[in-house]
Queue: 2 jobs
Job 1
Amino acid sequence: MITLALSKGRIFEETLPLLKAAGIEVLEDPEKSRKLILTTNQPDVRVLVVRATDVPTYVQYGGADLGITGRDTLLEHGSEGLYQPLDLQIARCRISVAVRSDFDYPSAVKKGSRLTVATKYVAISRDFFAAKGVHVDLIKLYGSMELAPLVGMADAIVDLVSTGNTLKANHLVEVEHIMDISSRLVVNQAALKLKQAPIRKIIDAFASAIGK
Ligand code: PRT
Ligand code: MG
């Protein structure tokens, strides 16, 4: 049995064409079904539906042989023991610093003031501002980071941006582009040894589907 861990939403949607290229079709829709283990047209391939941030953990502990997860999640939560053979170039976005449009970020940074930054990406933010020599107080949030500057809780946020519509709708502007993000295929090292042929077949099919 080969087990693939995926999160619902954009990663699931953008993975379907890659699975199809590997001859795998998921037989249930995770948005409609309450099942957490989805069957496929291949009797020996199944898909686990997990929280995006839990994908690396399932693969690390062998609950799944493979998984697909954002580079943001791997950097923030660690990628210890995971083999990362492919950048799938899906679920692309960037991680950025954003502030209220009336906040003077360049002079706050120049003056060496302490910035209060709200984010779910505490590790990425700490590294980024440390490298710039900017002092920050980090506030950990789990979602809707955009609210924090609007209610005066933070000067800035560090969050994912794709179209920029969410920032715009909340009168926030991007002031730093920290890095580009896309999703990676991650593989359990032991599974790769024990189930080499079927796992290689999936990796190779994904690679040719993305033109690598
Ligand atoms: O929802 P849950 O708390 O379970 O987990 P999650 O939010 O981490 O999962 P999910 O499915 O929302 O995101 C999974 C992965 O998709 C992320 O880890 C990223 O690698 C990738 N991804 C790509 C994105 C986006 N684009 C994205 N735009 N994840 C989130 N967003 C959010 C962003 O946080 C912001 O709130 O979309 C909003 C901005 O979008 P725009 O288009 O308005 O700029
Ligand atoms: Mg989400």
Job 2
Amino acid sequence: MQAKTAVVVGAQWGDEGKGKIVDVLSENFSVVARYAGGHNAGHTVIIGGQKFILQLIPCGILRPDCQAVIGNGIVLDPIAFLREVGKLRDLGVNVDKQVFVSNRAQVILPYHRMIELAAESAPGRQKIGTTSRGIGPAYEDKMARNGLRVVDMLNSNLLKTHIQNACHEKNAIAHALFGTEPLNPAQIYEEYVKAAEQLAPFVTDTAYLLNQAIRDGKSVMFEGAQGTMLDIDHGTYPFVTSSSATAGGAITGTGVGPTAIGTVIGVTKAYVTRVGEGPFPTELHGPEGEDLRARGHEFGAVTGRPRRCGWLDLPLLRYSNMVNGTEWLVVTKMDVLDSLAEIPVCVGYEIDGKRVDTMPADVRGLESIKPILTTLKGWQEPTEQIREYDKLPKAAQEYLRFLEKESGARIGMVSTGPDRDQTMALPDFAQALKSLEA
Ligand code: IMP
């Protein structure tokens, strides 16, 4: 590790337990920055039995001295942000002068949700199974150079004109295409001009803040949201989110250069889950999938939807490690596999009778994958109470070694439960983290 920075990225379809891992790792960091997505993310952290679900504010905020930055790559729903700030304050968490919002982040407005809700259920449209937070339409406006940035929201004249013009256009589109009732721009303005006042103290140029922190020798973590396979470029398009969830997003989504990234840490479950529509090669449809869902409490943190479950997919993990440049892997939810006598793992794909070791780009290819499975021995012992890697059952260590060998990245940490202390770091990773401390 050179620069004192690390990107923490989800290696699969999100929900890998990044929230908990970022929280554990943030002990070693002075600043934690989110770089993509919005309040579609739901990071669950449990501290001393108390559960926090953070959607927008980086998990670093739960450490008293850690600064939390919302980067320019985010789409920010100001109402959701202020609600989250309020909840954190109620829990006694200090947010003032600790949370910083990029002035260049894009703003989600009510018509983004309106368009998304209407479009998702419209006949003839590809259903993605989104979180209905207006994420996609907000990124569409950003790329169409038609969005509202946080800095512009703070200017009440600009805010008013933007809402008026946008409502004029969006109401007409939503009505013509989906028969939706129009939104009232005056009402939206009233609500958002008040929100802007409360948002203003948090707003700054976070690119300068982050680059200065790096120059000052502070350690900075870039917290990914969603996961590699939901990335707009590298994921299972079109069943993806609308942002750059992979490690590259940390650059464009915060305003630091690629040479400032010290290392990349991928977080992977010991098996795989996915929420929403789209291909999933190792999905289990029967009782085995239900069993993983029940043991792993696999229900969406944001929408409560049951997550689809399947066996570990090593070609997917290899692909993910490649596009992220992952150096270290953190394996979560090992305890969910505790009771199994045998654990199937996907080691390759068969498509149209041919063995393929790479990730196909097209959905048809992805859907016709037959996973080639190998079976590893289970350990059939509880691991929840184990705190040292060497004390894990032999078969669990073998499972991890196999995962490491096949995926091409080093295992740095293993998690066997939701609490902060149900985590064990391997010595080399612990050493590497120590060298990051500012
Ligand atoms: P959107 O991000 O709301 O546009 O949803 C697009 C796809 O990404 C849907 O399949 C969602 O279920 C999925 N998605 C978005 N955020 C998350 C997350 O934090 N975890 C898991 N899946 C997510």
